[in-house]
Amino acid sequence: MAYESLLSPLTIGPLTLRNRVVMGSMHTGLEDHAWDIPKLAAYFAERARGGTGLIITGGYAPNKRGWLKPFASEMSSRLHAAQHRRVTGAVHEEGGAIAMQILHAGRYAYTPFSVSASAVQAPINPFKPAALSDKAVDATVSDFAKSVALAKKAGYDAVEIMGSEGYLINQFLAERTNQREDRWGGTLTNRMRFPVEIVRRSRELVGDDFPIIFRLSILDLVDDGQTWEETVELAYALQDAGVSVFNTGIGWHEARVPTIITQVPRGAWLDMTARLKAEVDIPVCASNRINTPELAEAAIAEGKADLVSMARPLLADPEFAKKTAEGRTDEINTCIACNQACLDHAFSNKAASCLVNPRAARETTLVLSPTRVKATVAVVGAGPAGLAAATSAAERGFEVTLFEKSSQIGGQFRLAMAVPGKEDFKDTLRYFGRRLEVLGVDVRLDTEATTADLKPFDHVIVSTGVTPRVPQIAGSEDERVVTYADVLSGRVVPGRRVAVIGAGGIGVDVSAWLTHRPETLDEWKARWGVGDPATFRGGLTTPVLEAPARQVTLLQRKSTPIGIRLGKTSGWAHRAHLKQDGVKQVRGATYDKIEAGDDAVTLHYAVDGQPHTLEVDHVILCAGQESVRNLWTERDNWHLIGGADVAAELDAKRAIKQGTEVAAGL
Ligand code: NAP
Ligand code: SF4
Fold first, then answer.
1. For residue 653, what are the domain limits?
2. Which positions fall inside the NADH:flavin oxidoreductase/NADH oxidase N-terminal domain (predicted)?
């Protein structure tokens, strides 16, 4: 595949982009402090060097009331503009182009001083906003325009005005959050006045030779959101006011429909982008759940979009565009849409990075520099930790041998990719597999390394992983009591009635696996209640639920709500899934015994001292893991990583980071 459409240049006024690959806005935390500007410059320069057509920064507030959190990023002074010359200069040196995103958080600001169109609190924020006065709205418009002008002064090639995901501009547009009765509220013309004035006044300040991108919410996915008619009216008005490109946004942050996580089908929202493109005369950029060059190419070639925005995929692989252009797409480190190290961190006030690429936003601190000493490295175990260690060490120039006792690489990750909605995980194993080949790692599958085998090596990295924990419950030796590994590997096919013991990430995943029925994109949308915004305001309608494939009871000993420790930006969707699929949830359970019958097994358990029985075809144990350390002894130049190190926090994010760090420190 030549990727001709994706790789063709695009001219937007005075700016010619070398291709249609856009790195969408993603707040990493590096934006928030002037002292991090060198790191920010290195982060973007790496993406520009990787051939990205256009980079869009994380959001910068036009004033203090627009901060995402206290002391967050802002573009409101000449000093700010001067500081950013280092960022724009670094990108330009690599032949890239960069736009600054101007974002006013409105009622999403995590501060007690937040403001909005009306004093209506967001369900995802403990702070209630104050309604802006007429004068303050006008001043905010001016602040936006001033930021745009300052971004131009800082050397940015364009700006993106953030008008989607439920931030301030969206809050003015939707009746849900705009209950004003003055010239900024009520009729559509009045609600549109805020963004239209922002664009008009920005255009006045920067003239015609500076592209203004507007991120337009084409599907709000909240009650009392916008209708399609309103969105199109707004697009016309913004186009007339001077917008050069529309980027598209799907869903407010408070929406209760998943829009970007792995379980959202790839390309789910492209038809909405195509619908906007058919209405307007300027280029339109697609976004959300596009993570491969094939999908991006098809979107443009089929006329659904002119550009494709990929924020997380460019965190995962800064060379996405370069590898595509060089026909090396099998070497792309694909974003698996897990949110675990990017958005989950951003929404927890932690520095964002990437699960599959822990160097993201750490380009200057996690460096894989060429080794000065030629040395040999043995890595034992080809799960995520071992794969990261082996490839990182080989990248540094070490001579690496990777031992794996099974016939395939991947470890626990191979099980995870069997979970519905986690199919993208297979791309991580494809990436690592190819990387091992390219770097010439000596991979020895079906080989259980012994201490003698490891003796000749200068460094030994032990990443022998974990084994599922089998809790001591009387009767658990029955063959119908199995582990999650037995089920996800396909060794055991469970019957129609199942008890799942242990409700951590894997218990929840296994419940999804058990209840799952294959579904089309339309069925997926119906399940989440996504309707046509031309008919349903905000694009929300009544969900249509199909009967689940199995009856599942999910149990845990804790009395806390099930799934409470799942990812900040995805846990709610997993919990909603359990409800949709009728998974019965039991908390505070103590397990007494499992009794074998001819046609079923009976789980005897108690809650609050009250005995219960549950007759099922299978009991699946998802009770955590134990480290496998049979090879491990404390020695010089031996390192223990991944689940073999800490099973309690078995987690691919930690494993890949630790593997990379150990290799970087050899
Ligand atoms: P986990 O999160 O530690 O959960 C293990 C579960 O087993 C807990 O619910 C625990 O709850 C129960 N348990 C522990 N010891 C037990 C015993 N002796 N008898 C009975 N029950 C016992 O482990 P996991 O589910 O295997 O997940 C491992 C890691 O994978 C997680 O830490 C997570 O990082 C990652 N992961 C995340 C996701 C996600 O975020 N969607 C999905 C999959 C995996 P009680 O003690 O209350 O019974
Ligand atoms: Fe993608 Fe997960 Fe990396 Fe975020 S952390 S960029 S979702 S792979």
1. 376-467+626-664
2. 6-331
